[in-house]
Write a structure and sequence with these properties.
The protein is of the alpha/beta class. Helix content is 41%, strand content 18%. It has a single domain, classed as TIM Barrel, CATH 3.20.20.220. The protein is globular. The chain starts with a helix and ends with a helix. The structure holds flavin-adenine dinucleotide.
Length: 317
């Protein structure tokens, strides 16, 4: 079923979450066993993140270093199939512009359609770590709205080459990303919302937000999005802080603020265990307020670790 159908049919806020594919060389079975406890809260859909290629350096005899491209978390299609078979949930694979030509995107969408995937989240992706700014593939997309347009075209039976067009069309429900605290490259929140609207106009049917720790930021964002003519569901993304290092890393990586009230509590923490208790309690409060406000789903960034999300969901759902 499509995400929009789950939302339309739901009588209350849904529970959903995001997982990372296991690192190459690690077991999918272990990862699935790790998230199994979360199935108690009946998530209709589970997102599967995508990780573009990275470069590693291989040392050869004589000290020569060779730069080698590798994907450390491959296996999206297999994970989607495993989620459907084992848990009967709708997988939502993330698709990136970065590292993909339009032809590779078309082929990836065909694979996903063949295994019965009905939902995708269309993203630009970040810059390659070795480059300062995002650079599209020669025959790839520069912005997520262009990727949305390609998926939308396939939903209308329009492929890259005329000879492929036989009348058969895909039927993906397309989600996109939104940033209550603004995407770091956008000149202003107004411009970011203008570009969000462009993604919706290209065919996206719902939005999932970047994590935030102050619900007011989400409420303001939804209000401004509605004023900008964006009417689709906006699903809030949440992550509990669970380690001391995240206090520094989350604002730096995701360009977001930690509210003073949360920081006052985190300031008293000496260990990761202390932080985790504060983080979970904060996420429970955030979640309860968002449920009260009638949000379509609470979407948790689990990093494939179920423990903290399980405790939050147990208190909220
Ligand atoms: P876009 O919507 O293309 O926006 C990128 C920037 O360009 C923004 O600043 C925007 O304002 C600007 N912009 C957009 N359109 C235009 C235009 N027409 N003209 C000028 N400027 C424009 N990354 C991964 O690598 N893998 C994942 O699985 C993944 N999952 C994510 C899930 C969620 C819910 C979120 C919120 C983010 C996720 N990301 C993921 C991170 C995401 O790829 C980055 O934040 C990326 O930098 C932007 O992606 P986007 O789709 O929002 O890009």
């Amino acid at each position: 079923m499509k995400i929009t159908e789950y939302i339309d049919q739901a009588k209350k806020t849904l529970f959903s979450f995001e997982i990372l594919p296991p690192l190459k060389g690690q077991s999918l079975h272990d990862m699935l066993a790790g998230i199994e406890p979360l199935m108690e809260f009946k998530p209709p859909f589970v997102d599967v993140t995508y990780h573009r290629e990275e470069y590693i350096y291989k040392q050869h005899p004589g000290g020569l270093l060779q730069k080698v491209s590798t994907k450390k978390r491959p296996g999206t299609v297999g994970i989607c199939a495993a989620l459907m078979n084992r848990f009967h949930v709708a997988p939502v694979p993330h698709l990136l512009c970065g590292g993909f030509s339009k032809e590779e995107t078309e082929n990836a969408l065909i694979d996903l359609e063949f295994i019965g995937v009905q939902n995708v989240l269309a993203l630009r992706g970040d810059a390659d770590k070795s480059e300062g700014k995002f650079i599209a593939e020669e025959d790839g997309h520069r912005y997520a709205y262009e990727l949305v347009k390609q998926i939308s075209d396939m939903n209308n039976g329009i492929y890259l080459h005329d000879e492929t067009e036989t009348g058969f069309h895909t039927d993906f429900c397309i989600g996109v990303a939104g940033y209550p605290e603004k995407h770091f490259e956008a000149p202003s929140l107004n411009y970011d919302l203008k570009y969000l609207k462009q993604k919706i106009d290209a065919g996206a049917e719902y939005v999932v937000t970047q994590m935030f720790f102050d619900n007011q930021k989400y409420f303001n964002y939804v209000e401004r999005a509605r004023a900008a003519g964006i009417t689709v569901p906006i699903i809030p993304g949440l992550k509990p802080i669970t380690t001391l290092s995240q206090i520094v890393n989350l604002p730096r990586t995701f360009f977001l603020d930690l509210p003073d009230a949360l920081m006052h509590e985190l300031d008293t923490c000496k260990t990761n265990a202390d932080v985790k208790e504060v983080g979970i309690a904060w996420a429970i409060e955030q979640s309860r307020e968002l449920v009260k406000a009638g949000v379509p789903s609470l979407h948790y960034y689990t990093m494939s670790k179920a423990d903290a999300t399980y405790r939050i969901a147990k208190a909220v759902f």
